[in-house]
Design a protein that fits this description.
The chain contains five helices and twelve strands. By secondary structure, the protein is an alpha/beta fold.
Length: 258
């Protein structure tokens, strides 16, 4: 595992939970539990490892392993040609079956622009220190177990569809979020925990469908002193559970379940 990525995970947990956790790989199942992640295959040309886009994108089906190659092998495939006789009398389904499919390959390990210290990634670019990711591009660094992380993201672990996110764990479908833990559908929020469909929150927990709150718990502003006292207790519990079990039972997707 990338040492820089490991250190950023430890820093992020310290920032979010007040408790630095180590051993990123030990938290892999928990971090990726709600994220479509790439899977490994072997190149049909060379046998080298190729990381492939999540099967959730393709009706839950995986690609034919005999038709998978790595991006750097594109030029090694002999050109294929179809004659006029091959095309004669074919409908669209026939063209796909007889002409397209025998010639088509899936290209994994896709890389765009410059990359540095990339681990398991089906598609990434303009990124550094990323591992177990898909669609992670454009000035993004220190990201793991994530999908569709675009534009100026840093230290994101277990995220899906984010822009401009920093020091977040389990953030989804959000924009301009910083130091957030278990948030979904949030915009311009910081230091938020277990919040859904919110905008302009600062230091809030368990808030839903609200805007412009500070020191709020369950949509009610309680003041800094009371908020920080409750936050301390909540984070101590989360940190202890994660350290012991390497996972957390509650998430933003099941927090309302009894």
């Amino acid at each position: 595992m990338d040492k820089e990525l490991e250190s950023q995970f430890t820093l992020t947990t310290k920032i979010l939970l007040g408790k630095p956790l180590s051993g990123l790989e030990q938290y892999a199942a928990w971090l990726g539990q709600s994220v479509p992640l790439p899977y490994p295959a072997k190149s049909a040309l060379s046998g080298k490892e190729v990381w492939v886009a999540p099967e959730q994108y393709f009706l839950g089906k995986r690609f034919n392993p005999e038709r998978i190659i790595s991006m750097d092998e594109i030029g090694k495939i002999p050109p294929q040609k179809a004659t006029e006789q091959d095309l004669e009398g074919l409908d669209v389904a026939g063209l796909v079956r007889n002409v397209v499919m025998p010639h088509a390959y899936y290209c994994g390990n896709f890389r765009y622009k410059t990359t540095m210290d990339v681990g398991r990634a089906s598609g990434t670019g303009d990124a550094s220190h990323v591992d177990m990711v898909e669609d992670t591009y454009h000035n993004t660094k220190n990201v793991a177990y994530a999908n569709c992380i675009l534009y100026d993201n840093q230290a994101v672990f277990g995220g899906h569809t984010l822009t401009y996110a920093q020091f977040c764990i389990h953030a989804y479908n959000s924009n301009h979020v910083a130091r957030c833990f278990e948030v979904e559908g949030c915009n311009s929020c910081s230091d938020a925990y277990f919040c859904h469909n919110c905008e302009g929150l600062m230091e809030c927990m368990f808030c839903f469908n609200v805007k412009s709150k500070r020191y709020a718990i369950g949509n009610v502003e309680v003041g800094k002193e009371k908020y920080m006292a409750v936050k301390k207790l909540v984070l101590e519990g989360i940190g202890a559970e994660l350290e012991k079990y390497k996972k957390l039972e509650r998430s933003i997707f099941n927090i309302g379940r009894r």
